[in-house]
Amino acid sequence: MSQARCRNIDPEELFVRGAAQREAATICRNCPVILECAADALDNRVEYGIWGGLTERQRRALLKQHPEVKSWAAFIATRRNHHAAAAGTGAASV
Length: 94
Prior knowledge:
Elements: H1 20-25, H2 34-43, H3 56-65, H4 72-89
C-alpha cells in the first residue's frame, strides 16, 4: 500500500481509543487505497486501529451484519459496481 495517505505518519495516530478514532479516520479521506485497506482489515479480522477509514466498532459491526462474506474485496467491488450501475440508470442506490 505504497500509495496510502497514512504511509508516512506515525502509526500511533491510527491506534487510538474511543472518540479519537473518528478524528484518526479522517486521515483516510480521499486515500486512493481506502477500499483495499478496509477489505484487507475485514478479511484478516484486524481488531485494532483505523483501517480503510473504519473504526474498530465499525469493522465489528460490518463483520456481524455480513457473516456470509468470504472476501470483503469482492463484496466491496460488487457493491461499488451495483451503485455505479444504479447511478448510471437513474435508479435509486441501495
